[in-house]
Amino acid sequence: MSLRTSQIKSSDYIGKEVTIRGWVYRLRKQKENAFALVRDDRGGVIQCIFPADKVAGLTIESSVEVTGVVSQDARAPEGGYEIKGKNIRVYSVAGTDYPIGEYQSDELLLDKRHLALRTRKMVAMAKIRATVLDLGRRWFVDNGWMEVTAPTIVKGAVEGGSTLFKLKYFDEEAYLSQSAQLYLEAMIFSLGPVWSLTPSFRAEKSRTVRHLAEFSHLEAEAPWVTLEDILQVQEQLVSYIIQKTVKERAEELAFLKRDTTDLKKIEPPFERLPYDKAIEILRSKGFTVTEESGTKREIRAGDDLNIDSERELTKDASKPIFVIGYPIAVKPFYVKEDPERKGVGLAADMLAPRGFGEITSGGLREDDIVSITERIKKEGLNPAAYDWYLDLRRYGSVPHGGFGLGIERLMRWITNADDIKDTVLFPRTMSRVTP
Ligand code: 4AD
Questions:
Q1: Which domain holds residue 184?
Q2: What is the pLDDT of residues 255-300, one digit of tens each?
Q3: Is 338 a domain residue?
Q4: I want to staple 50 with a disulfide (CB 3.0 to 4.6 A). Which of 13, 85, 133, 175 is the partner?
Q5: Residue 72: pLDDT above 90?
Q6: What is the pLDDT of residue 207?
Q7: Residue 57 belongs to a domain with what CATH number?
Q8: Do both 237 and 287 map to the same domain?
Q9: 122 in a domain, yes or no?
Q10: For residues 45 and 66, what is the distance between their CA atoms, to the nearest angstrom?
Q11: Are residues 240 and 162 in the same domain?
C-alpha cells in the first residue's frame, strides 16, 4: 500500500520500508546520488535519495512510485525525514519543457493554471478553500437550515441588467444566474430557512482584484425575520468559518505567510454603521467620487459605496462592519423600503476589515405586491418576466430576508491574497475563460 508523505513523517516509520506515489517536484543530481523531492497527491513532499545512475532519465513532474527505507536527517528538507530509495517505478516521464519553475510571472501561472495547481501555494489555497466551503455547510446544517439548489439558467435579472450573461436557450433567450435569491425566496414558503451554494455569474466589465465573472455564492433566505436577525446570522456564520479555518488550516495559512492574529479576534458582534454616518465619515475625510463625465466631486448622501470608499471606511477596522440602511435608489428592486424612513432600504452589506471591502450583501425583501411591481418597472425591467416571483407576494406574502456571501471575497480576506483570482482554482474574468 502506498502512503502519503504526511503519514511517513513520524518516528513510527524510521527504519521501515515504505512505498509512496507522486510526482518529482525538485531534482538535484550529483555525481553519485540524486535527490528527488517527491510530491504526493495532497501536496506533501519528501526527499528521496537514489544512486544517480538509477534515475538518469528522470525529469521534473514525472510520475513515480518510490519504495525505500525512511530515515531521519536534519539536513533533509521539509521536516528532516527522507527515503533512501530502493526501487523507483516511473509511470510517465514528463517532458523536459515543464513550464512552471520556481519564479514565474502571474500571467504565465494563470495561463498554465492546470499545471500551476501543482504548486504548493495553490495546494494550500485549495485546502483552505475546501475547509471554508465545508465550514459554511456545517454552520447551516448544525443550525437547522435546509440545503437547496436553484437553477443557474434563468429568465430574469436579479442584480441589474448590465452584468447579465446572455445565452441561447433552445429557441429563446436566457441568462446565467447572478444570484439564487429569487428562487430561495420561493422555497421559504414551504421549506423554512434555506441555504444554497451555487455558482453565480456576472459579466463584470471592470478588471479589479475583487471581481470574478463566475464565483461561488453562499446564499440564505428565511421567513419571518427582521434585519437584525439576518445580520446576526451573517456575523455568526463568518466568525465560525474564520475561527475554525484558522485552527484547521493553520499549516496552510502559515505556508502562505498569513499572520492570523487579527483573524483570531473575529467574533460577533460586528459594528452596525448607518449609511448616513458612513457618508458623513467619508465627507469629513474629503472623500471624492468621479462622475461618469469624469468630473470629481465630494461624496454625498445618495451615492453608492465603491471599492475606494469601502477601503477608506475599513482600513483601520479590526473586525467587519455592517453598513446598514442604503438608499433604495442604489439597491436592486427587491430591497424592502423602511416603512419608517422613505427612500431608505432595509439592507446591509458586510465590509471586511483592512480594506478588503464587501463580502456579503443582504437584508429584508419588499413583500408588498404593489411596491415591488413599481420598483421592477422603475429599474426598467418587465414585470411580466417576474410574474412567478410576484406570485410570492400575491399568495401569502410574509416578511422575509436573506443574504449572499461571496466565497472568494471571504477567501481573499482570510488568505490576504492580493487578487481574488488566487482564491479560485480556475478563475473566470473578462479576459480569461481558459484553461
Ligand atoms: O451584492 P450582491 O450582488 O448581492 C446579491 O447577489 C444578493 N441577491 C444576494 C442575496 O441576498 N441572496 O452579491 C452578494 C455577494 C457580494 O457581497 C460579494 O461577496 C459577492 O457576492 N460577489 C462577487 N464575488 C466575486 N466576484 C463578483 N463579481 C461578485 N459579485 C458579487
A1: 113-423
A2: 999 999 999 999 999 999 999 999 999 999 999 998 888 899 999 9
A3: yes
A4: 85
A5: yes
A6: 84
A7: 2.40.50.140
A8: yes
A9: yes
A10: 13
A11: yes
Q: Which atom of ligand 1 is nearest to the CA of 350?
A: 17
ipTM confidence: 0.99
What is the whole-number distance in angstroms between the Cα of residue 256 and the centre of ligand 1? 26
Ligand 1 neighbourhood includes 372 CB (under 6 angstroms): no
Is the alpha carbon torsion for 5, 10, 11, 16 positive or negative? negative
Residue type, 23: W
In a domain, 326, yes or no: yes
Distance 7 CA to ligand 1 centre (A): 40
Q: Which residue has the cell 429584508?
A: 364
Q: Which of 22, 67, 66 is nearest to 44 (CA)?
A: 22
Atom of ligand 1 nearest to the CA of 184: 12
Tens-digit pLDDT profile for residues 305-338: 999 999 999 999 999 999 999 999 999 999 999 9
Q: Does any domain span residue 175?
A: yes
Q: Are residues 136 and 84 in the same domain?
A: no
Q: Is the CB of 401 under 6 A from ligand 1?
A: no
pTM for the structure as a whole: 0.96
Which distant-in-sequence residues (6+ apart) come within 8 Å of 21 by Cβ? 2, 40, 41, 63, 64, 65, 66
Q: How many domains does the chain have?
A: 2
For ligand 1, whether the C-beta of 181 sits within 6 Å is yes
Same-domain status, 131 and 46: no
Q: Are residues 138 and 279 in the same domain?
A: yes
